[in-house]
Amino acid sequence: MRHSNTLAAGFEDSGPRLGNGRRVGRYIREAGSIVWARNISARHILYTRDALTINRGLLQQIRRAGVALVRYRLKGAGSYEIALDQFVADAVQLPGLANGEDVFCVPRANWRFTPELGGLTLFAFEGRA
Fold it and tell me: Which residues contact 43 (CB under 8 A, 6 or more apart)?
């Protein structure tokens, strides 16, 4: 079965896919922009650099899709957000880190964090000074 990454009908059910065809996150339309939203666990945080990452293949797909904002929701903690242009500008490439695929990482301090408490959003923390 061939998977499509085009933004057509069923847009809310679309998202970038890994090489094995598994969808990672989803595209959402918000305020006239496209957001790539993804649920993550603590294992997705690159602790050696205290950073969040995007694999090269996923980054290429979300750029082609016209994504403006990346949102990672860390279960039970809150959401991290960054403009895709800012992610690309700040990213450090780590060659071959994910099963031979290049990974791009940006420190968590560069992401805007919105904590959650029992499902309630408390306030937004702007990581940049």
Answer: none
